[in-house]
Design brief:
alpha/beta; 47% helix
């Protein structure tokens, strides 16, 4: 009963935009079936159909849906900050952050709370953060756990985006051949030998779970990141202030839609060279560069060597595909990230 009472004290926060009612409708229905009573939807200037759907759910008597409506898309960092603040004001004890296109398994929140009860015996409440198992995008966490290296989530020191000159052969082989670590993970999960929970070095928003006291310690997500890496910055800030993060294997989340990051290209630089959403391109590159320089560089020479090589291949690919604007946007994002020019760029508004 104690776990079920804690479900009623858990506020779920998600941010939506555009016309995504067909995704978050399923999420809301699932949360209601799980016994979640407080849901906070941050509406980043979504389409009218999405607004109407949110209003329909908020008018129901059984479900307490709080809507925060923004007149423009302010990005994930701003939206989740608003949602977290609202959850605290509503008197929630726990906050569970989800993307609007995720679908939790029925027992996913219970699994989080079971692990929370175990870990809270030795870890202070404000120092503990959990992460659900987003099965469609789990590889980076799985590798970190299998290698017993929580920092693997952040990536190799001095890498530029996904590229490191000293790991070139390994990178190429992982793109074209079956990854042994993933095979090992499959065998372990089939044999039900994978750990119930394990420490990791950073966490994404989708599935992030914590007590409201954590915010008193580390504050809110950094709104200057707008999109991308704001979740990693938030969770890494938590770790650097003495916190711990644990990946919870049985707390399953499933994606309803494929991310732009999971593209048809095996190499990320080809996605940058060809992507037509220039705002996404800009914030993705700028934020990753700013984050890396701030948190993951201890040899500036190696970092800039990786940067130059990656940039060369990106620009060549863009020239081949005649995507000249992509080169301009990429270089501006690179410059802004290196120089700490963060926040909204009026040239790249979010839809």
């Amino acid at each position: 009963m104690k776990l079920h009472r804690r479900i009623s004290k858990t506020a779920v926060v998600f941010v939506t935009y555009g016309n995504r009612h067909h995704y978050f409708s399923k999420l809301i229905e699932r949360l209601f079936s799980m016994g979640v009573e407080f849901i906070i939807a941050v509406d980043n200037n979504s389409h009218s159909e999405s607004k109407e759907t949110l209003l329909k759910y908020s008018s129901g008597k059984k479900l307490k849906l709080c809507i925060i409506e923004n007149s423009q898309n302010l990005g994930s960092a701003y939206g989740f900050s608003q949602g977290i603040k609202a959850a605290i004001e509503l008197g929630a004890e726990f906050i569970w952050l989800l993307d609007d296109d995720l679908l939790p398994d029925m027992d996913s929140l219970l699994s989080l709370l079971e692990v929370w009860n175990k870990l809270s015996l030795t870890v202070k409440t404000h120092q503990l953060m959990l992460l659900s198992n987003r099965v469609d995008r789990q590889n980076i966490y799985i590798r970190a756990i299998l290698s017993n290296n929580p920092e693997h989530v952040i990536g190799d020191k001095n890498k530029f985006r996904s590229f490191h000159i000293l790991k070139l052969i390994h990178t190429l082989s992982s793109k074209f051949f079956v990854n042994k670590e993933e095979s090992a993970f499959s065998k372990k999960t089939n044999m039900k030998e994978f750990p119930e929970y394990a420490p990791i070095g950073a966490a994404c928003y989708g599935g992030m779970f914590f007590n409201v006291s954590l915010v008193d310690t580390i504050g809110f997500p950094d709104k200057n990141y707008i999109l991308y890496y704001d979740d990693y910055e938030f969770s890494l800030r938590h770790i650097r202030q003495g916190g711990e993060i644990y990946f919870v294997t049985k707390s399953i989340l499933r994606d309803q839609v494929k991310s732009w990051n999971n593209s048809r290209w095996k190499f990320a630089f080809l996605e940058i060279a060809t992507n037509r959403n220039l705002s996404i391109l800009y914030y993705s590159v700028r934020n990753s560069v700013n984050f890396e320089k701030k948190y993951n560089v201890d040899n500036i020479f190696i970092y800039y060597l990786n940067l130059v090589i990656y940039t060369f291949f990106t620009c060549v690919a863009a020239l081949i595909f005649c995507r000249f604007r992509n080169i301009k946007v990429y270089l501006q994002a690179l410059f802004d990230g290196l120089n700490g020019k963060m926040g909204f760029n009026p040239k790249y508004l979010l839809k």
